[in-house]
Design brief:
Blueprint: E1 3-4, H1 11-14, E2 35-37, E3 44-49, E4 53-61, E5 74-75, E6 88-89, H2 91-100, E7 113-117, H3 118-128, E8 141-144, E9 151-153, E10 158-160, E11 177-179, E12 186-188, E13 192-193, E14 197-200, E15 204-214, E16 221-230, H4 232-240, E17 253-256, E18 271-275, E19 284-287, H5 293-300, H6 304-314, E20 318-319
Parallel strand pairs: 10-16
Antiparallel strand pairs: 1-10, 2-3, 3-4, 4-7, 5-6, 8-9, 8-20, 11-12, 13-14, 14-15, 15-16, 17-18, 18-19
Length: 320
């Protein structure tokens, strides 16, 4: 079942029950670049991004860096197979370019260009493209939270699932822990469900995490709180390091999406990876690229108009 989460209940999606934090977009991650020059020309054509690894180099104006949003995204040409990420600049820089006729005539101090990896370039495009319906337009929506029954105004950006698709009602009396020895050692029962983890018959294992869909023209995201499968080895590692700060050093864990999101065609078994966060915060799921609509919105962004449609269908939402 899809659950909308108002600000009062936001921590049920973003964090584990041990921690309650205010709503916020994914944290900004500092990125260091190391260029790899081609031997024939000594012109760098790839960069090593701390977040995305080795990717194609791109160039944007300095205003488009960081968490900027809604500044406009202009390019010297349409993306193509040979150049999928043409140089880009904001609307203010476009005014300067147009006034001088071309970039060749623009003084260097008026428009500074920065190096960016191609994955960061795409996120930059999503944040700064100006859609016909803007994120600010969502402030006209009013909706009722199914958890607290209060009415709220503005966008609802958190939807979630309380159990994996494969959980059945007959499992509901199962406990988290079994006492297995006179010494009182505790081990997880073969079948259990809690707000963070799930095991079914000691054979299928799941963790609850977040899929962030970046919103076009905004520095925020629509967040799906979903379940993903894990191997027994990875599941045991997470249980053992549940409160260990070193859990953030665990490598990404392969996962199959195990929630059926009604806003999309069949979402079960989409390939993704669980990226483990600090204790008290749920993993972030990163979807593999595919032509599935959920994957396309994950990698290319979701429009504010689409967010509005999801709210109107999934909530008792009205427009003011």
């Amino acid at each position: 079942m899809d659950l909308a989460i108002c600000p009062n209940h936001h921590h049920h999606i973003q964090t584990s029950p041990r921690t309650c934090i205010s709503p916020h977009p994914p944290p900004t991650i500092h990125i260091d670049f190391v260029t790899h020059p081609r031997e024939d020309t000594f012109v760098p054509d790839t960069v090593q991004c701390a977040l995305h690894g080795e990717t194609r180099q791109t160039f944007v104006c300095t205003h488009l860096l960081g968490e900027s949003s809604g500044l406009g995204f202009n390019r010297e040409e349409n993306p193509g197979e040979e150049n999928p990420c043409p140089d880009a600049w904001c609307d203010d820089c476009e005014i300067i370019r147009a006034a001088h006729g071309s970039w060749d005539s623009v003084p260097e101090e008026l428009c500074k260009i920065e190096l960016l990896c191609s994955e960061c370039y795409e996120r930059c495009r999503i944040r700064n493209t100006r859609p016909s319906v803007t994120f600010d337009d969502l402030s006209l929506l009013r909706w009722k939270c199914p958890n607290c029954e209060d009415w709220h105004s503005g966008p609802c950006l958190d939807f979630g699932f309380s159990e994996p698709w494969y959980w059945k009602k007959e499992y509901e009396n199962s406990g988290r822990w079994n006492e297995v020895s006179a010494e009182g050692l505790r081990t997880p029962s073969e079948t259990f469900l809690d707000p963070d983890y799930c095991s079914i018959d000691g054979r299928d294992f799941f963790v609850r995490g977040i899929i962030h869909l970046p919103i076009i023209g905004a520095a925020d995201s629509l967040r799906w709180g979903v379940w993903g499968s894990l191997s027994l080895d990875n599941f045991e590692k997470l249980l053992a390091m549940d409160d260990d700060p070193n859990c953030v050093d665990l490598p990404p864990m392969f996962s199959w999406l195990s929630s059926q999101i009604s806003e999309y065609p069949d979402t079960l078994s989409l390939k993704m990876y669980a990226h483990i966060q600090e204790p008290g915060t749920r993993p972030q799921f990163r979807l593999e690229r595919s032509d599935h609509p959920l994957s396309l919105e994950y990698h290319h962004g979701i429009t504010p108009e689409r967010v509005r449609e999801i709210m109107l269908r999934g909530l008792r939402a009205v427009e003011l």
